[in-house]
Amino acid sequence: MQTYTAVGNAPGKARETYRCRVAIIGGGTAGITVAAQLARRGIHDVALIEPSQKHYYQPLWTLVGAGVATAEQSVRDEARFIPRGVRWIQDYAVEIDPEQQLVCTRDGTRVQYDFLVVAPGVESHWEKIEGASETLGRNGVSTNYSYDLAPRTWEFIQQTREGVALFTMPNTAEPGYTIKCGGAPQKIAYMAADYFRMQGRPVKVIYATAGGVLFGVPEFCRVLEQVCERYGIEVLTKHELIAVDPVRKQATFALKDKPGETKTIAFDMLHIGPPQRAAQVVRESPLAHREGAMVGFVNVDIHTLQHVEYPNVFGLGDAAGLPVSRTGAAVRKQAPVLINNLLKVMQGKEPDKRYNGYTSCPLVTAYGRMVLAEFDYNNTPTPSIPFIDAQRERFDMWLLKKYGLPFMYWNLMLRGRA
């Protein structure tokens, strides 16, 4: 069993200080997976800093928004997944001092570490879209990027009998901004279009993305273009949502290829993919990139996941400065690399395992159909299931999305077995 030594109270708000071999910031997919794999490798002197009592399987929220899963199916108690022997510090990390090897929490608890894993995820920044936060969940405006709002998406889809259903993707090319599961904003567009088709409703579906293409990997982009053609979805590229008028039910876009120009589209329902940034504790720490596309994200080597300035610090998941789509599948491949390299450094050796940028985007294209897009840093398809043509819509991949992946997540990945 690990021992934690209280070493006195710091002045002001500080309550107590705990010493540990490894501290992990974040108890989401990345943090729990790392904690579980460390426990399985015999490293138990670990502190996990995570405020939430609940743990969410967020990929299910696409299916919640499409009416084929419930929000309750996506949530479990966080305590069920804290590995035995790991100390859970149930609070927000608010400050990281890598020189002192110290993490401070909101209530003043101090965590002194020998090694640090940074995985607090990303935050949605709704203030980037004027009027959005005030109307979310009302007036036909919703998002699947929230446990509470994904069910509202399904309600609004059902209520839309004609007119325009509008789905948006934020500007992820702006330095410091991203979105986790970049395929999610278009997945729900496909599901809604399929629902309107089955119901015989004359609803025009528009997918507006700030990016220049529908999907970044050409092989899968071609497949998705065919999906849009089948449904009659109008795809608008280089359209960045900047404002929502809930009274007039209008969305205003900045046209990225025409600086200074905007375009307004009237809608009956609107699903918004939110602009997201690395957690504030990362952005304001010495661990973050200070400039460039990854500004604000943890400045790690993209292959070893070791911090470029502090060798006893590692990062993974959505908050890591990696040029990769932010998904649970990416974490599943990053975690073993991080664990191997962290243990090497703990032994005084050099990291020797490399992450190639693998990620996976399960692209639901209809009720009962899915394309499994797997690719690496070079946007090269990297299929992992033998004898399966992943570049077409498949019913078996739908079953994987609906049943297989949730089972693997709760029972294998969060237990350090996958």
Main beta sheet: 7 strands, mixed
Sum up the overall morphology in one term: globular
How many domains make up the coordinates?
A: 2
CATH-defined topology of the largest domain: FAD/NAD(P)-binding domain
Structural class: alpha/beta
Strand content: 25-35%
CATH C-level of the largest domain: Alpha Beta
Overall mean pLDDT = 95
Order of helices and strands: EHEEHEEEEEEHEHEHEHEEEEEEHEHEEH
For the termini, the CA-CA separation is: 25 Å
The strand count comes to 21
What does this protein look like?
This protein is α/β, with parallel strands linked by helices. The protein has two domains: 17-121 and 279-357, 3-Layer(bba) Sandwich (FAD/NAD(P)-binding domain), CATH 3.50.50.60; 127-275, FAD/NAD(P)-binding domain (3-Layer(bba) Sandwich). 24% of the residues lie in helices and 25% in strands. Strands 1, 2, 5, 6, 7, 8 and 19 form a seven-stranded mixed sheet that branches. It has a five-stranded parallel sheet with strand order 10-17-11-12-13, with helices on one face. Strands 14-15-16 form a three-stranded antiparallel sheet, with no helix packed on it. Strand 14 (239-245) and strand 15 form a beta hairpin. The chain is globular and about 65 Å long.
